[in-house]
Amino acid sequence: MKISSMKSIFTAPFVTEIGKTAGNMYRLGYDERNSGNISILLDENMVSEYLDLRFVKREIEIGFDAKELAGKILIVTASGSYFKNIQSTPAENLGIIRISADGSKAELLWGLNGGGKPTSELPAHIMSHISRLSADHDNKVILHCHPTNLLAMTFVHELDEKKFTHTLWQMCTESIMIFPDGIGLLPWMVCGTNEIGEATAEKMREFRLVVWAMHGIYGSGRTLDEAFGLIETAEKAAQVYMLTAHLPRLNTITDEQLKSLAESLNLNYRKDFFPKQK
Ligand code: 13P
Ligand code: ZN
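^ thats the input. predicted complex w/ zinc ion below
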């Protein structure tokens, strides 16, 4: 495409949509200060309507092997970006990167103005993209944030992914319908490292949602709405748990009810996540 006929990157749906979603997440209390990060795999033809893909602004060492995504283009949030500011100042708070042919660098095509770097959680994002693509080749989005109730729940609930998922299923009728595949759970680990990236990606082979105990959650999906919707639903269930866990329980959705709901919708749910019948 001729440079002169290129559209403004500031009007690109993948830029405006991240800004809108990040603002909503900030207002929901999921992303205080710079917390949270987003990455979306972009279609090269679509990006070339906005950017000259021959022009690389700078190269950034990524510190792990991303060869499986060589040549792929992603939009990512900048490390330290405040989610409330992404919509108003996207060029400082977002970057469009292409993974180099040898998988060792991010080629910056646009953004990260002022010398910024991609999110410190790039290992977890890139490695999780690789895992999710092996489970669903249309997966595009990895989304991380710190929703209050999910975080709180990891302080007071057993850190067992079967029990954690089952509790969330019990808290809202919709939970099992939205995440019948359950939620993976990792113990507290040092964030921003290749180790937590590898552990997250391992869980992402099996789960679309992964909780980081006492830190936050990762969600994935084909669209930003889908990944965000998964997290929103889990967070709502965690909120109901945190509002009721200390009160006498008078009513409950029984396992039989949950199973009959899942079966009536033909859901491929984690039958092994229900407690064994005594
Ligand atoms: P970044 O600002 O580097 O994306 O880090 C935020 C965060 O949530 C770390 O887990
Ligand atoms: Zn975080």
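The chain has a mean pLDDT of 97.
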